[in-house]
Amino acid sequence: MALVVSPDPQVGQRILVVEDNELNLKLFCDLLRVHDYEVEPVRDGREAVTRARAFAPDLVVMDIQMPYVSGLELIEQMKGDPDLRQVPIMAVTAYAAKGDEERIRDAGAEGYVSKPISVVNFVEAVKRLLDEAVSANSEEENEEAEAENGPKADPI
Ligand code: MN
Question: Domains along the chain?
Answer without folding.
Answer: 14-148 (3.40.50.2300)
